[in-house]
């Protein structure tokens, strides 16, 4: 069975257009002539390994996509993809657990590039307790859990606003990455019932978009921050992000502080 790959020139042209760059703009950034870039895109010239990496850097491509460009040009990939449970990732796992544990009693979750749940702290149960168990079977998807009719969606007071915010984030990610898996996920989520605000879904008279979750006759008012690893050289590491939930008001903060986790009850 023969596996065919897209020509390197076609891939370079497609990524340049996705980044909304002209040949002139990219050639200036890459410090090459427009003529040379044109020859690369049309297949009249073959890029060197260093040229592939240089153009990939100027196009701000993910490490996974840089490997694909190298393969298309006939070169070996340079970026590894190490499983998170492998021995070389021991320090990374330790750092993740430290961040997750240190964020208690507020929820925090680690997801991969496709928004699949990789890890979480115990306080995430304040949200996942409201979700149908089948949606939490690995690989659980954080966006599906949020917007599915059997997930958090029925408990989110500002579902229109939150849905619009999440779909806007995902749409931008699809546009930037060109990832077909993410495109399929976006199509699935847009098919779920529920409203959607237009644009970014920014809260009126606010500074962040909160998610307001009704639980036990109370409304938890939360906002999130996202953290990634700096200067990663491994694909797995580059695609991990930690999303941390913070209380947006003192009532929510007090409610989360008073909620004892299983480990705290047995301590």
Automatic annotation (TrEMBL):
Gene Ontology molecular functions: DNA binding
One Pfam family from the record: MLTR_LBD
Domain HTH cro/C1-type spans what residues? Answer: 12-66
The name of this protein is Helix-turn-helix protein
Organism lineage string: Bacteria, Bacillati, Actinomycetota, Actinomycetes, Micromonosporales
């Amino acid at each position: 069975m023969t596996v065919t790959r897209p020509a390197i020139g076609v891939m370079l042209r497609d990524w340049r257009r996705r980044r909304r760059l002209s040949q002139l703009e990219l050639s200036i950034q890459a410090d090459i002539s427009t003529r040379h870039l044109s020859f690369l895109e049309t297949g009249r010239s073959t890029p060197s390994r260093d040229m592939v990496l240089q153009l990939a850097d100027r196009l701000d491509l993910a490490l996974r996509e840089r490997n694909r460009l190298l393969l298309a040009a006939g070169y070996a990939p340079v970026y590894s993809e190490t499983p998170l449970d492998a021995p070389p990732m021991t320090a990374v796992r330790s750092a993740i657990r430290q961040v997750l544990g240190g964020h208690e009693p507020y929820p925090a979750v680690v997801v991969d590039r496709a928004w699949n749940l990789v890890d979480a702290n115990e306080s995430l149960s304040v949200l996942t307790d409201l979700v149908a168990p089948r949606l939490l079977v690995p690989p659980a998807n954080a966006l599906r859990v949020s917007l599915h009719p059997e997930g958090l969606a029925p408990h989110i007071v500002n579902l229109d606003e939150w849905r619009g915010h999440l779909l806007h984030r995902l749409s931008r990610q699809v546009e930037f990455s060109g990832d077909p898996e993410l495109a399929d996920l976006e199509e699935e989520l847009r098919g779920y019932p529920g409203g959607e605000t237009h644009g970014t879904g920014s809260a009126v008279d606010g500074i962040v978009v909160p998610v307001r979750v009704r639980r036990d006759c109370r409304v938890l008012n939360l906002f999130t921050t996202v953290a990634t690893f700096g200067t990663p050289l491994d694909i797995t590491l580059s695609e991990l992000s930690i999303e941390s939930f913070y209380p947006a008001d003192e009532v929510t903060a007090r409610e989360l502080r008073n909620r004892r986790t299983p480990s705290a009850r047995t301590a």
